[in-house]
């Protein structure tokens, strides 16, 4: 993996990107008063500055808030929406681990198709898996002998 790809991977894994309550309310469509209530109930968490005034939320919390709102908009109670978000977050962690652990590189071939290298097979390290994303957005998986760089 190239140096820039490693840096982006570290940003994605670090979860250090923070936004304020006003920005969180704007991007999620959840009012600041609802966010404060959810935080008091322990459904979401923030970090506060030294004066304990400004709340800063992680990017993952933004996803969490938007997911809870989605389920509320579907007619679920807040308790059920929070439970459904928790179940979904568990799957999201699996996906995040897959992305950060398996994607080795992303390149482009001579035809302009994207190539996502997923690495060698665990049970046959002479073969590697990659995904091809064509210009229409169709993704196909492929197996080939390991390519030496």
Automatic annotation (TrEMBL):
CDD domains: HTH_GlnR-like (cd01105). Signal peptide: none annotated. It holds the Pfam family MerR_1. Residues 21-81 form the HTH merR-type domain. It comes from the Bacteria. This is MerR family transcriptional regulator. The lineage of its organism: Bacteria, Bacillati, Bacillota, Bacilli, Lactobacillales.
């Amino acid at each position: 993996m190239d140096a820039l790809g490693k840096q982006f991977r570290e940003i994605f894994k670090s979860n250090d990107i923070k936004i304020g309550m006003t920005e969180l309310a704007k991007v999620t469509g959840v009012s600041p008063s609802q966010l404060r209530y959810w935080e008091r109930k322990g459904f979401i968490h923030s970090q506060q500055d030294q004066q304990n005034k400004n709340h800063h939320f992680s990017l993952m919390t933004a996803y969490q808030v938007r997911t809870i709102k989605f389920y509320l908009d579907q007619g679920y109670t807040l308790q059920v929406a929070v439970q459904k978000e928790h179940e979904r977050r568990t799957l999201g962690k699996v996906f995040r681990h897959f992305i950060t652990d398996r994607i080795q590189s992303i390149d482009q071939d001579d035809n302009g198709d994207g190539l996502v290298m997923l690495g060698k097979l665990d049970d046959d390290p002479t073969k590697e898996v990659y995904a091809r994303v064509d210009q229409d957005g169709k993704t196909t998986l492929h197996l080939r002998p390991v390519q030496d760089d």
